[in-house]
Amino acid sequence: MKCTFIGLGVMGFPMAGHLLRHGHDVTVWNRSPDKAAGWVARHGGRSAATPAAAAAGADIVFMCVGNDDDVRAVALAPEGALAGMQGGSLLIDHTTASAQLARELDTACRARGVGFIDAPVSGGQNGAENGQLTVMCGGEEADFLRAEPVIRAYARACVLMGPPGHGQLTKMVNQICVAGVVAGLAEGMAFAENAGLDLQRVIDVISKGAAQSWQMDHRHRTMIANEYNHGFAVDWMRKDLAMVLREAAANGSELPLTGLIDTQYAEVQAMGGGRWDTSSLFARLRARRNQGN
Predict the structure, then answer these.
(1) Strand partners, 92
(2) What are the mean pLDDT values of the chain's consecutive 10-residue runs (293 residues total)?
(3) Where are the beta strands (DSSP E) in 128-281?
(4) Among 160, 116, 147, residue whose Cα is nearest residue 19
(5) What is the third-level CATH fold of 169-290?
(6) Cα angle 104, 108, 109; round to 5
(7) What angle do CA 210, 213, 218 make, to 5 degrees?
(8) Annotated catalytic, 171?
(9) Strand partners, 158
(10) What is the spatial distance between Cα 224 and Cα 243, in angstroms, rounded to a whole number?
(11) Looking at 2, 35, 171, 239, which residue is catalytic?
C-alpha cells in the first residue's frame, strides 16, 4: 500500500516505522519538520511539507495527533490531508478523540468519496514500539476490511466495534476502566505502605491472584521508586476523561468514580505532574500523607 502517516509523537513515530517495515510505501508529515526528518533518517521513506502534499496519491492516510482541534487542523484545513486525498482512498484516525468528531470526519470523507475509520488505540508507547497495540474501530465494514490487514503491522488486536464513532466510544470505556484500576492500585499501595508492609512483597503475592492487572505488572516498581517520567501523561488522561464525562452526561451514564479520579488527576497537575505517568496517583497519596492530610 501507498501510505501516509500524520503525527510522529511517541505513538505515531514507531507505528509509521512498522508500516514501512511491513513493506508499505510510507510518506510522513509532522507539525515539527525536524521530527519528520528524523523519522526519514531512521526508517527511510519520505516526508512532505503539508498534510495535503503527504496524502496526495495515498491509498491509506493515518493520523495520530493530540485532540479534536489537532485532528481538524490536519484533516480538514485547506492544506489538510483530506484536500490531497483521492476518491476511493481511506482515512484512518488513531487519535483518541470525541465520537462526534469521528462522525464529522466520516461525513466530510463521504462527501469526497473517501472511506473513514475512527481507530483509537490502547497499549501505550511500549505497545506502539513492539507492534502490540489494541485497535478499536468504528466505520463501515467494507472500509474496515481494507484497513485491518494494514493496521496489523502494529496491532495484536483490531476489531470493528460498530459505525463511525464506536471506536472512540469503546476507547472511552477503556479509559474509564484504566482510571479505576490505577486509582485502586495507588490506594492499595498507599495502604500497604502506611501499614508498614513491604510493598514489593505485597505486589509479589497479590499479583498472583484476583488483584493482578497490567498496571500492577508494569507500573508497581516505578511507583515504589517514585519515578513517573514515562508512560501515558496525566494531561492526556484528563483530556480523555473530559470527553468521557461529556459523553456520559449526554447518554445518561452515572460515573461518580470516574469524576472523582479526574479531580485527583487535577491535584497531580497542580503538583506539577501534568507530564507524569498516570500511576502518579500514588505520588499524590504520598504527598497528602506527608502533609498530614
Answers:
(1) 62, 117
(2) 97 98 98 97 97 98 97 98 98 98 98 98 95 98 98 98 98 98 98 98 98 97 97 96 98 98 98 98 96 75
(3) 133-139, 155-162
(4) 147
(5) N-(1-d-carboxylethyl)-l-norvaline Dehydrogenase; domain 2 (1.10.1040)
(6) 115
(7) 140
(8) yes
(9) 135
(10) 31
(11) 171
Contact 54, 29 (CB under 8 A): yes
Please, which residues have CB within 8 angstroms of residue 183's CB and are 6 or more apart in sequence?
Answer: 257, 261, 264, 281
3-class DSSP assignment, residue 102:
helix
Cα 205 off chain centre by: 31
Q: How many CB atoms lie within 10 A of CB 178?
A: 20
Taking a C-beta distance cutoff of 8 angstroms, is the pair 39, 8 a contact?
yes
* DSSP-assigned letter for residue 279: G
| Homologous superfamily of the 2-162 domain (CATH) | NAD(P)-binding Rossmann-like Domain (3.40.50.720)
Cell of residue 233, nine digits: 501523561
pTM for this entry: 0.95
Domain boundaries, the chain: 2-162, 169-290
The SS3 call for residue 146 is: helix
* Interior/surface letters 11-49, b for 16+ CB within 10 angstroms, e for the rest: bbbbbbbbbbebebebbbbbbeeebbeebbeebebebbe
Question: Can you name the residues that pair with 138 across neighbouring β-strands?
Answer: 118, 162
CA atoms within 13 A on the CB side of 194: 15
Distance, CA of 235 to CA of 265 (rounded, Å) = 8
Q: Dihedral of CA 240/244/246/247: which sign?
A: positive
Torsion angle of alpha carbons 215, 21, 17, 136, nearest 10°? -50
Q: Which of 92, 29, 107, 98 is nearest to 68 (CA)?
A: 98
- Give the integer Cα–Cα distance in Å for 165 and 101: 8
Which of these, 71, 7, 66, lies nearest to 39 by C-alpha position? 7
What is the residue type of 2?
A: K
278 DSSP assignment? G
C-alpha distances in angstroms, 76 versus 28, 56, 101, 107, 180? 17, 14, 11, 11, 35
